[in-house]
Amino acid sequence: MKSLILAEKPSVARDIARVMGATNASRQSIEGPKYIVTWALGHLVTNAQPEQYDNKYKEWDLAVLPIIPNQMKTVVIKQTSSQFNAVKRLIERDDVNEVIIATDAGREGELVARLILEKCKLKNKTIKRLWISSVTNQAIKQGFNNLRDAKAFEPLYQAALARSEADWLVGINATRALTKKYDAQLSCGRVQTPTLAMIAHRQDQINRFKSTPFYGLDLTVEGTHFKWYNGQQTSVKDEATVKQLAQQLKGKPVKITAVKNSEKKQYAGALYDLTTLQQDAYKRFKYSAKETLKIMQSLYETHKVLTYPRTDSRFISKDVVPTLKERLTAARKSKFGEQVKAVLREPLKVNQSFVNDAKVSDHHAIIPTEEAPNYLKMGSRELAIYNLVVEKFVSVLLPAHVYTEQVIEAEIDGNVFKAKQQIVTELGFKALYETKGNAKALPFKQGERYSAAKLSLSEGHTTAPAYLNEGTLLKAMENPTTIFQIEDSQKAKTLKETGGIGTVATRADIIEKLYAMNVVEQVNGGLRVTMKGRQLLDLAPQKLKTPDLTADWETKLAQIEKGKYSKGQFITEMKNYTQQVISDIKKSEKKYKHDNLTATKCPTCDKFMLDVKTKQGKMLVCSDPQCGTKKNVVRTTNARCPECKKKLQLRGKGSTAVYSCVCGHRESQEAMDKRFEKHKKGRVSKGDVAKYMKKQRQDDEPFNNPLAEALAKLKLND
């Protein structure tokens, strides 16, 4: 008899097959003497669409809403049905007596596998669970030595199913209702709508903000800068007051009235979860949340150098501690190789600042695996993210940063001036960023007097809060109380404890969806709500515009995971909630106005088209949401300008197409074709060029490659 192992993706399945001795590979599985390994290609089974319940739901009609099935159905996804059928045949084979769920260890991974198993015949078959956080050989072996009964994960599945069905009920109904009520493509949901509201709230704060000037007085003594203190303030709004004071104190002696030295220690802080990693990746490299997650998946699945990325924990459990040396050894050739070697020379010091079983949920923090990376196979972006994780990992194993904080107080004719400075005694973990400390001797003593001192006026203006960017938005989604004033203290507490709105795995997709819906745009790195977004927030039900719904959901989903709450009861509540939302939309007397309507008529249905901005350029989209006709107006291509090397924009199509650049360069399709042919002769085929360009975009090689530069100038016709 054999065991069937069900992985989530082919890459993970291949790793498991190699470790478990399965070598006979086919298109849909890998078989060995004891194990058969197959995969799910992500979701193979999903919630049925409304029209799969009743044909009357095929057309979007406000009158038939809300759509609330008595029993939720699931269906096999048509595009991947061949893989589902292969998995089903394998599960139902007579010589298979055991199924091992090896999908991602978490709520979504559990849902992927269980939906498949529910559509198969499992008579007299044992179901077990593989629960691992990395796909290295060692992790896989340890995982198979500690297989668990799948029954223990039944509550996790029920919570995942409850979340999936509730999002279907609310999202499908609210989106259809808004779209039909206002004849516009309007989508809302319990995560995306509050996220949009947060961006709008910050934008409103900035628009309402009025900058005011303030004035202060600076004192320089022996190269140290002091600030004048007016009570507890370092500035006043009246410039005349400061000027008068400066005139009064000019030339008067300075007396050091107090010197306070305090020994301080600063620790590195917790390890990375996905959200904090995405925030730092945006801050340092301007990588989008989606891009960082994609890179992380590659480092986890393909290179196997980092642990499971979709984690919300910033701690590791005690059972990981014995593997720390191996993980450090694997990272010796990283950017922080010297610091890694220094850590390995001493006994490792672990403490509760990063080792805490109670703070590890499904997966521990993101850390390096025991697998040494092959740097020749990693692109520059992969290398950047890998080094970021190694840096954080090494930092928690280094000593604290130790310094003396010196607060100096001086007086001139009774007026107080203060200075603060740090004298570093031990770099500790900051050795990762700095090469030496400030070893300057303590320069001031109480009672000292100075006759040579410089006074100067300082001026500033109050500044508005910054626009949210992808990094700070992720942080706000993790803790919405930093943006929203949530009056219910229990809900605020729940949101903070459960990780805010969305999950570490879905937040990047939510942000991308806001872009795709044209309700958010990026201006100079800051996120702004478009006119469409403003109207959507005005039209959406009030309950969907705050994180309160998520607070309620997460409280109950957590209880379902623990077996303390009924999934059936939760869904009943969501059905009632959905009915109320649809009722509110139907009763609304508000109007929607397209602010981007053009005079161009749709070639399909003859209605007017909308001018829509996308990340790739401008596009015309039919104003009828059910028509869906799209037409490119301006598209950013991969062809490079021969003058300034920037990407060219394409207008029109076929022989009349025109390529233009911001520098003023323009060329016709004919001229572009000639350039292409010139580079093509004696080199590679058009197909090879396309493949090579795709690889260059993925790898983003950090060195100058003459062939890549030549190919980057070419336009590949669709």
UniProtKB/TrEMBL annotation:
<feature type="active site" description="O-(5'-phospho-DNA)-tyrosine intermediate">
    <location>
        <position position="308"/>
    </location>
</feature>
<feature type="site" description="Interaction with DNA">
    <location>
        <position position="60"/>
    </location>
</feature>
<feature type="region of interest" description="Disordered">
    <location>
        <begin position="677"/>
        <end position="705"/>
    </location>
</feature>
<feature type="binding site">
    <location>
        <position position="104"/>
    </location>
    <ligand>
        <name>Mg(2+)</name>
    </ligand>
</feature>
<feature type="site" description="Interaction with DNA">
    <location>
        <position position="168"/>
    </location>
</feature>
<dbReference type="InterPro" id="IPR013497">
    <property type="entry name" value="Topo_IA_cen"/>
</dbReference>
<dbReference type="GO" id="GO:0006265">
    <property type="term" value="P:DNA topological change"/>
</dbReference>
<dbReference type="GO" id="GO:0006310">
    <property type="term" value="P:DNA recombination"/>
</dbReference>
<feature type="domain" description="Toprim">
    <location>
        <begin position="2"/>
        <end position="135"/>
    </location>
</feature>
<dbReference type="InterPro" id="IPR034144">
    <property type="entry name" value="TOPRIM_TopoIII"/>
</dbReference>
<protein>
    <recommendedName>
        <fullName>DNA topoisomerase 3</fullName>
        <ecNumber>5.6.2.1</ecNumber>
    </recommendedName>
</protein>
<dbReference type="InterPro" id="IPR003601">
    <property type="entry name" value="Topo_IA_2"/>
</dbReference>
<keyword id="KW-0460">Magnesium</keyword>
<dbReference type="InterPro" id="IPR023405">
    <property type="entry name" value="Topo_IA_core_domain"/>
</dbReference>
<feature type="region of interest" description="Interaction with DNA">
    <location>
        <begin position="187"/>
        <end position="192"/>
    </location>
</feature>
<dbReference type="InterPro" id="IPR005738">
    <property type="entry name" value="TopoIII"/>
</dbReference>
<dbReference type="GO" id="GO:0000287">
    <property type="term" value="F:magnesium ion binding"/>
</dbReference>
<dbReference type="GO" id="GO:0006281">
    <property type="term" value="P:DNA repair"/>
</dbReference>
<dbReference type="GO" id="GO:0003917">
    <property type="term" value="F:DNA topoisomerase type I (single strand cut, ATP-independent) activity"/>
</dbReference>
<keyword id="KW-0238">DNA-binding</keyword>
<comment type="function">
    <text>Releases the supercoiling and torsional tension of DNA, which is introduced during the DNA replication and transcription, by transiently cleaving and rejoining one strand of the DNA duplex. Introduces a single-strand break via transesterification at a target site in duplex DNA. The scissile phosphodiester is attacked by the catalytic tyrosine of the enzyme, resulting in the formation of a DNA-(5'-phosphotyrosyl)-enzyme intermediate and the expulsion of a 3'-OH DNA strand. The free DNA strand then undergoes passage around the unbroken strand, thus removing DNA supercoils.</text>
</comment>
<feature type="site" description="Interaction with DNA">
    <location>
        <position position="310"/>
    </location>
</feature>
<dbReference type="InterPro" id="IPR000380">
    <property type="entry name" value="Topo_IA"/>
</dbReference>
<feature type="binding site">
    <location>
        <position position="8"/>
    </location>
    <ligand>
        <name>Mg(2+)</name>
    </ligand>
</feature>
<dbReference type="InterPro" id="IPR013826">
    <property type="entry name" value="Topo_IA_cen_sub3"/>
</dbReference>
<feature type="compositionally biased region" description="Basic and acidic residues">
    <location>
        <begin position="685"/>
        <end position="700"/>
    </location>
</feature>
<dbReference type="GO" id="GO:0043597">
    <property type="term" value="C:cytoplasmic replication fork"/>
</dbReference>
<dbReference type="Pfam" id="PF01751">
    <property type="entry name" value="Toprim"/>
</dbReference>
<dbReference type="Pfam" id="PF01131">
    <property type="entry name" value="Topoisom_bac"/>
</dbReference>
<keyword id="KW-0479">Metal-binding</keyword>
<feature type="site" description="Interaction with DNA">
    <location>
        <position position="176"/>
    </location>
</feature>
<dbReference type="InterPro" id="IPR023406">
    <property type="entry name" value="Topo_IA_AS"/>
</dbReference>
<dbReference type="GO" id="GO:0003677">
    <property type="term" value="F:DNA binding"/>
</dbReference>
<dbReference type="InterPro" id="IPR013825">
    <property type="entry name" value="Topo_IA_cen_sub2"/>
</dbReference>
<keyword id="KW-0799">Topoisomerase</keyword>
<comment type="similarity">
    <text>Belongs to the type IA topoisomerase family.</text>
</comment>
<dbReference type="InterPro" id="IPR013824">
    <property type="entry name" value="Topo_IA_cen_sub1"/>
</dbReference>
<feature type="domain" description="Topo IA-type catalytic">
    <location>
        <begin position="153"/>
        <end position="582"/>
    </location>
</feature>
<dbReference type="InterPro" id="IPR006171">
    <property type="entry name" value="TOPRIM_dom"/>
</dbReference>
<keyword id="KW-0413">Isomerase</keyword>
<dbReference type="InterPro" id="IPR003602">
    <property type="entry name" value="Topo_IA_DNA-bd_dom"/>
</dbReference>
